[in-house]
Design a protein that fits this description.
The complex is a heterodimer of chains A (327) and B (542).
Chain A lengths: L48 H16 L4 E5 L3 H6 L4 E2 L5 E3 L5 H14 L6 E7 H6 L2 H10 L4 E6 L35 H7 L4 E6 L3 H13 L4 E6 L3 H5 L5 H11 L5 E4 L2 E5 L8 H5 L15 H18 L7
Helix pairs in contact in A: 1-7, 3-5
Chain B lengths: L12 E2 L11 E5 L5 H5 L6 H9 L3 H8 L6 H7 L3 H5 L11 H15 L13 E5 L3 H12 L3 E5 L8 H4 L8 H12 L4 E3 L7 H8 L3 E4 L5 E2 L12 E3 H7 L11 E5 L3 H12 L4 E5 L11 H9 L3 E3 L2 E6 L3 E9 L5 E11 L2 E4 L3 E2 L13 E2 L2 E2 L12 E3 L10 H19 L36 H6 L10 H8 L13 H5 L5 E3 L6 E3 L9 H5 L5 E5 L3
Parallel strand pairs in B: 3-4, 3-6, 4-5, 6-19, 8-15, 9-10, 9-15, 10-11
Antiparallel strand pairs in B: 2-22, 7-16, 12-13, 13-14, 17-18, 20-21
The chains are: A alpha/beta (327), B alpha/beta (542).
Amino acid sequence: MAFQPVKYYQTGTFTVGNRLLPPEVRAVQSSERRSNALNSGHRACQGCGEALGARYAIDAAMQATNNRLIAANATGCLEVFSTPYPETSWQLPWIHSLFGNAAAVATGIAAALKAKGKAGVRVVAQGGDGGTTDIGFGCLSGMFERNDDVLYLCYDNEAYMNTGVQRSSATPPAARTATTTAGNVFNEGKNLPAIAMAHGIPYVATATIADLHDLEHKVKRAMQLCGARYIHVLVSCPLGWGHASDASIRIARLAKETGLFPVFEAERGELTSVSHIRHKVPVEEYLRPQRRFAHLFAPKLRSDVIAALQDIADRNIERFGLLDRPG
Amino acid sequence: MMRKPFAITLDRGSSLANHTGTWRTLRPQYVDRLPPCNAGCPAGEDIQGWLARAEAGDYEGAWRLLTEENPLPAVMGRVCYHPCEGACNRGQLDEAVGINSIERFLGDEAIRRGWSFDKPKKSGGKRVLVVGAGPSGLSAAYHLARLGHQVEIREAGPFAGGMMRFGIPKYRLPRDVLDAEVQRILDMGVVLKLNTKVANVLQAKEEGGFHAVFLAVGAHIGKRAYIPAGASARILDAVSVLRSMEGAERPQLGRRVIVYGGGNTALDVARTAKRLGASEAIIVYRRTREKMPAHDSELEEALQEGVMVKWLSTIRQAEGSSITVEKMKLDEKGFPQPTGELETLAADSVVLALGQDVDLGLLDGVPGLEIADGVVKVGPNMMTGHAGIFAGGDMVPSERTVTVGVGHGKKAARHIDAWLNGKTFAKSRVNAPASFDKLNPWYYSDAPKTMRPTLDIVRRQSTFDEVLRGLDEKSALFEARRCLSCGNCFECDNCYGVCPDNAVIKLGPGKGFEFNYDYCKGCGLCAAECPCGAIEMVPESI
């Protein structure tokens, strides 16, 4: 009989933990001692993908830095639902400033820590796609260019959700928002991971809330490096995307499995690894459960638009080799 | 006075003051669902439960849980037709978990390591007579002994095992395995009297001072069919052929053997004939392969060994060294009808494998006892029409497999125990089924089934060595870990991880999880992302 290695005990490869695995290979989230950086009682909607993504990322960063971590936060859903004055859900030193300057504030904290000789304390900045790709883009690009020692985490839910679902430069083509009622136009917007890579910074990665092990690995990797680092996390939004609250993870998974959201990592501007598609699905499976794409299916089926979106997915698959078999 | 920093007027508070549980309209709950393997097991084993222990490498724990329901795992792992695997949800993903192989591994491991059953916790029960030491009788004796009763088995034959010994060939069930598992039951204090035929059950009950009787004499009289035959034609019946394999003298079947029938016994005889040196073993069956009652896996193995089958044929006549068969065709209702087309086949002997009848002699004159279609009628509690006399196995209406027999034995034992104590046995509540649509199969990685190595065909044609070899420890563990744990939490931490509100409390290894309803908003992510369907969302009463 051919030898078959027992990998992750068959059932545990994709789950958060597994009673049969040694604790060190389980996800940070499986531990009773995770830092729960974003605690209960926050006011995010039911099934919020951003709340999940933020806890995943910050808990992983807390573990990687032995809890010596400071966070700066841009305005946005994440800030609004977690810290209605004077309450806070954050269980780490956390500062909020303006919508557009989280990167600059974080840079300042890092500089202050350096000046005070506190080399062991690390800094993250976090914001939504609006605060990152639109309003805070100048500060962020400056942070990249100066290679400041900050990990910037962008939780991308593809529109301004906090103010009522207005279009951002991360809104995908054809998506309906409050300001693009007929669907967002094609060939606009920014590919921020690519722009970050173009800065040649030490580390750029994308991730989704659907693959926890991958996300935690990337945060851990980022914390091993110094200088400007950027992780772009796709977080689904039940309210803005119009899907069921229990579908948040499934939708994020479909974004990756269709090829619409390529998951990869890059160092110094060079692609170093991609997360392969496990079971390829057509984009329609991703679009259908979301009300923001409902106009593609009724009153008239817009096969042309769906085909154009499939084209984007196929180009990603081609470009990143998402269907190549690993090994 | 303001003693706070500039622009700060309130003390810092935690969001824990905000009980977001009030938003909830749906409430998650942990549930146990009935896995399809358990639902499909005729012996009522908690398969998912013992697999979970085997997955952790606790083989003895797994074996102990298994034998709470079925005392014969090494036998089961060889002769059971594993309906559990047919029902296994993993079959819809890649291939069913090789439950039968793991069961055999556990059974063999128990024999190798000499594990024995715990002594009965209770004693001083009633006296129960079990008639017949087949799977059903042994199972009943085991369960009655566990419940503290004094059990005596009376077996008409020279060995225990019933059809497991006299019906199933050695290449499927080596006798040392059977002996070991029987002995383990006797070691619990069960008395076995061999070569003791019960001729009159009421008399035996009276004389032995028994409070109840469990009848499990099986069905071992080969059915005959009228075939016009010449004086020199050699016609035998399958049960006698298989039984004589246990004696000193091997049956003389000749080089060209015809077997008449389409059940598992027909295949057993044909494969036995091959091993005895027959150059041709041809099964004559009146219907088609799809309609054949024999199990597919056994037919497949037989065909590999060179057994041939004449489908849609009946035997018209048998002469000295040949038979005449008639071609059949199926009518619209699927019944075979003669076509008049005849063919002659060379045959040194014809073995009839047309089913078996029950020897009901011992029941003569038992008042109240009812017999229909040659089998004994029993109620849902396995009791015959005569109070205190229970029956099970092949002598009551059933599918007639070893596993069904074992299941009958267990069921009867529980009802006998209840009846002896003046109570009725109530089955515990059955959980809702864990069907495939309740699972989230994304979380299971691909891992094809570890096949048991089959004996090299040339070797198994000529010997009675066991055809299927067992799994080694490593592959058994691998196989056990392929279990999806349908409907029962296996502590993967998914619910704990995916809750955006930290509203799942992890209680520690083996203790599972709890919801913190103060903060749970009822989004349903935990239920949607639970791999095994162990969480359900129920409407909140508002």
